[in-house]
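Entry 14. Ran structure prediction on the chain below.
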Amino acid sequence: MRCRKCGQKAVINMRHHKLALCKAHYLEWFVAQTERFIKKYHMFSADDRVLVAVSGGKDSLALWDVLWRLGYQADGLYIDLGIDGGFGYSSQSKALTQAFAEERGLTLHIVNVPAAYGASIPEMAKLTHRGKGKPCSVCGLVKRHEMNRIARDLGYNVLATGHNLDDEAAVLFGNTLTWAAGYLRRQGPVLPASPGLARKVKPLFRFYERETAAYALLRGIRYIYEECPFSVGAKSIYYKQLLNQLEAKRPGAKLQFYLGFLKAKEEGLFADAAEEVAEALHTCPVCGQPTTAPGKCAFCRLVERVEAAVGERGE
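Output, structure tokens:
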């Protein structure tokens, strides 16, 4: 198969776009498309300070690389969760992220969860029995809190994550199965800023996972290939498998599904929940972050339970 632009051998064929491209033209296309999405969805401008949440995986590092190439003020944030999984998952992903930043002369902020809060994510889950001892809900809570905290404390007004189309379509599929109206109203490529919270954006939300993987490989980005050891059996992975089967028979189905959802929201399918959420938020008396929970936020209550459990063990 030949590149549509130059006739050279293509390295990728995107059936949903009816587009095959060589290495040089694919990398050019990927960067240009990202810039187009940033502008189309009013994510941020050259004047904004962007904090990129990086995990050491292909998507977040690809995003940071693109923003760096485009000249945005983009720094990274890596959250060390203390996950081993038998092969040092956190230590490997952190080392790859640090190497990426050093090679490009970029600023990387690192939060060490075990050092800061006295326990790793798996330990927190066991000590508090949150999520029946599985760390996924604890992990999400801690990451959201730390991303918001660092953005606020260091003056970033935009928080960017590397979610791709496969991620977003799987979440949308799961929320639609249960008609989780609150989550459906809030899902989208841009979550506007609210008091105490930076604007959240997903510049890669229209790229398929294989497209972000291709960009990372063609750019020579070293990233961690292994999934989190606790992701085995996750519903999101099952939803992705189902959507992949649909995509194989109907190229472009995932993109159509997600963009159709966004269009329906624009046309008023869901009431705008921004004002409702803003009214429900108040400031946590401990950490100062906005929360909808009465009194202390869920994160601070989690930390208190961890500290109490550690104290009972005499650690």
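Residues 23-40 form the longest helix (18 residues). Will compare against last week's run tomorrow.
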